[in-house]
Each structure stands twice: as C-alpha cells, then as structure tokens.
Amino acid sequence: MSAGPRSTRAAAALAVMLSLALAGALAPAGAVKAPKPPKGAVRARAVAVPADTSRVLARFGSQVITAEDFRRRIADLPEAARGNYAGPAGRQRLFDYMVEERVWLTIAQESGVADRPEVMRQLVEQRRDLLIRTYLNEAMSANPAPADSEVRAYYDSHLSDYRTPASVTLRHIQTKTQVQARQVLKLAQSGQDWAKLVQKYSVDTLTRVQGGSLGTVTREGHFPALGGQPALAESAFALSAGRIGGPFQSDRGWHVLKVEELRPEGERPFETVKPMILRRLSNERGQEFYRKLLEQARRKLGVTEDSSAIREAVSQKQDARAMFKAAQELGPPAERIFAYRTLLDQHPDSDVSPQAQFMIGFIYSEELKDFDEAEKAFRELLKRYPGSELAGSAQWMIDHMRSEEAPPFDLSEADSSSGALRPQGAAKGSAGKP
Questions:
Q1: Residue 147 β-bridge partners
Q2: Which residue range is the domain that position 88 belongs to?
Q3: What CATH number corresponds to the domain at position 230?
Q4: Kind and range of the H or E element at 215?
Q5: pLDDT at residue 349 in the model
Q6: Are residues 127 and 46 in the same domain?
Q7: For every residue of 247-296, which 3-state class applies, written as one string?
Q8: Mean pLDDT by groups of 10 residues along the chain of 434 residues
C-alpha cells in the first residue's frame, strides 16, 4: 500500500476497530487501558489458548471468536510487540481488543459502511497495492547484493569523489585598527595568556566568549562567525600549526590569528564510505533489476499503447499545485522525478516550481545517491529561481550532500505551501539549512 494520504484516508474510512487494535499492538505494556467491552459481549478471564482450538471464546449473534482465531492473532503479532502481550494479563488485553474489533466491525457492516462506493473503491485500491507490493518484494529478493569487491572497485575508481579538502582550525582576536592589531600581536607572541587577550581586546562578541574560536575552515573561507573570508583563510593556511600571525585585514576589521591545527588534503577511508557506496550500488542494481522484470512482464502480457491517445490524455494541463501533490504521492523515485519535471515543463513559473526543482535534486541525492544528477538539479534551481527561499537549501545540498555529516532533511515542509527546507532540528530561518 502506498504511504501517502490515500492510504491514510482508506485506513480511517475502513473501521475504527483496526486503529484500536494497532494502538494496542504498538503501545508498551500497561500504557493503553482497554475500554470496557460493549454490553452483551463476552469477556473471558485470564485467557489462555486451550488445546481445543475450536472452542468458542466469545459470541456476537451468529459470529464467534474461537481459540484458533486467538492463536492466529498471537502468532501474527509483530516481533517487537509480542512482549507487550506476554503472560495471562497481556493475552487478556489482546483478547479485549479482538472483542472491540469484532463489535465495531459488525456494527459497521450492519450500517452498510462496506457497501459505500468510496469505501469499496478504497478497498480495491488497497488490495491492488498489497498484491503488487507482495509480488514485487518477493521478485526483487532475487536481486543479489553488491559484493565487497564491487564496492571496493567503485571506491578505487571514484577516489576523487571522496577527497577531503585541506582545513585549518584557528582562533582570532579582532580589532578595529591595524595599530591595535599590531599591539595585540606583540602581546600574544610574547607569551601572554591568549584567552585573557581575547577578552580584553577582541571586538568580535560572537567569538569572544569562546576564546576567539573560528572553528575549522577550508580554503574557501566560509567562517560561521565572519561569513565568506577566503583571503583570511589563505593567511591562516600560510601559518604553521601553533603559530600566531597577523595582522590580517578583512571586511570586518583587523585580525590576529592563532592556528591550532592544519590538516592536509586527503581521502576519506574506504570503511567510512563503504555503507554509502553499498547503498548507491544497491539502488542502481535494484533499479536495473526492476526495469528488466517490468520489461519481461510487459512482453509476457503483450502490452500495447496508443501513442496518440496517450498524448491527448496527458496533454491536458493540470493545476501546478495539484501536479505537485500528485508527484509527492507517487512511489518509485523515477516516477516522482518525471512528475516534477512535467510540472516544470507545464508551469515553469508557478509558486511551487522551485520546490519541484528542489525535490528532483533531493531525490537524486538522498534516494538514488546520484550526486552528479542531484548537483545539476540544484544548480538549475539556483539559475532559474535565484530569489527562491530554497536557493540557500540548494546551495547547502551542493556543499554537503556527498558528506556523511549531512543531517536528515525535514520533509514535513515539502508541500505546496512550504518555504525553505532545513535539516531536522534546525530553527526556522537558520542560515545553515540544506
């Protein structure tokens, strides 16, 4: 079944008793108090599974719950939930939920809920999705996982993708004038306590409470406290570890720098990137295996298509927001990418077009691990929609998506009315958003 709003609506429309049972299966033992069974229902005490599985445990008119029904229900519990129903008290609680289910199911059926066209349609859709998912899960299980040698070969042939840039960890004391900076430099080089000099002379209030720490930066010079300062970064790289130097000028003032650590350019070790490579190769192999299965199935069924009729059907222009919502609800990544691109073709300047462009890059990056295609999509967003709130997110993804350090995305805002997306846990308006 799809995980989108459609299945949510269907589950809600089916019957309340199913959600009650699910709540019981997921809640920790004792966390959910079972409501009192409706009048007339039989409540068994200290329910155990008798040897005679045909024995009736409860009656509902002509319907019954047998010991075999109860045994199957226990056997069907998810492994993680079985501990909640261990022992007589736990089994009693599960039996009470079964009574509730059967009561509400019977009432719903007698009320004609099952005969409503919308409910029947949703049941058909759920059955369809369950059959497809079950078959494909079984068929795709025949697709072998990439061997360790294949993963290693990919790493060796893509070493440039796993380069780590040179970096420098440093502190600074910022002054308003060059004269002040020279005075501070002399004091620091004479051995005076660095932390005390920072507190006394630095005008940078953001870093002063942290001993003037500017963190770790690369030659690009993106300082969290100072913004982009590539010249200042180059000055830091010119110093050796442990050295104090300056004064160096930036658009913020004058700086005395203290280099704590220099790391040369290198490569990320194979073991640290192996899981990421394995996911990428598995996704690629899975997509190829799926395409072959689909092509074989189409040939077996003799599928034919009327291209002119298809063009006429798909050429009907939809509302951009409706297209975006429909794209979100699709399953396979390739289908969603195609749907977002169709939206962009038909509505290049709609209010959701930047989001559609972003989602193309996001799917390539986070689901398909195709970072080259992802970067193309994000750069296209920067080119076509530079004023969008998602421009900062796109640039963040370009800079960080190939890194294991990238935090998970908060996709709760990836709808037709959202603004910029951001890493989970980041505050709204944060500059460090993907």
A1: none
A2: 5-134
A3: 3.10.50.40
A4: strand 213-218
A5: 93
A6: yes
A7: EEEECCEEEEEEEEEEECCEECCHHHHHHHHHHHHHHHHHHHHHHHHHHH
A8: 40 38 38 42 44 82 89 91 89 93 92 94 95 95 94 94 93 96 96 95 94 94 92 94 94 95 92 94 94 95 92 80 93 93 93 96 93 95 94 92 62 43 42 34
C-beta of residue 37 within 8 angstroms of C-beta of residue 104: no
pLDDT for residue 372? 93
Residues 427 and 310 in one domain: yes
For the stretch 341-348, contacts whose Cβ atoms lie closer than 8 Å and that sit 24 or more positions apart, written own/partner, are: 346/317, 346/318, 346/320, 347/320, 347/323, 348/384
370 and 353 housed in the same domain: yes
Residues 114 and 185 in one domain: no
Q: Which residues pair with 43 in a beta bridge?
A: none
Q: What is the pLDDT of residue 414?
A: 45
pTM above 0.70, yes or no: no
Per-residue pLDDT at 277? 96
Residue reference for tokens 């070493």: 159
Q: Which of 383, 345, 386, 339 is nearest to 359 (CA)?
A: 339
User: What count of other Cβ atoms lies within 10 Å of the Cβ of residue 34?
Assistant: 16
Q: Do 125 and 183 fall within a single domain?
A: no
What are the backbone dihedrals phi and psi of residue 168, each rounded to the nearest 5 degrees, phi first?
Answer: -135, 135
pLDDT at 314 (0 to 100): 75
Mention every residue, 6+ apart, whose C-beta is less than 8 A from residue 224. Answer: 214, 215
Cβ atoms within 10 Å of 269's Cβ, excluding its own: 11
Domain count, the chain: 4
Listed in sequence order, the DSSP H helices in 347-390 are: 353-362, 371-384
The CA R_g of the chain, rounded to the nearest whole Å, is: 31
Structure-token pair, residue 375: 């970067």
33 and 130 in a common domain: yes
Indicate which CATH number applies to the domain containing 404: 1.25.40.10
* H/E run at residue 56: strand 56-60
Tally of CB atoms within 10 A around 169? 17
> What is the distance between the alpha carbons of residues 193 and 214, in angstroms, rounded to a whole number?
18
434, two tokens: 């993907």
Give the C-alpha separation, 423 to 434, whole Å: 6
Interatomic CA distance for residues 288 and 8, integer angstroms: 31
Task: Tell the burial category of 94 from Cβ atoms under 10 Å away from its Cβ (0-12, 13-18, 19+).
Answer: buried
Angle at which helix 353-362 crosses helix 391-400, to 10 degrees, equals 10
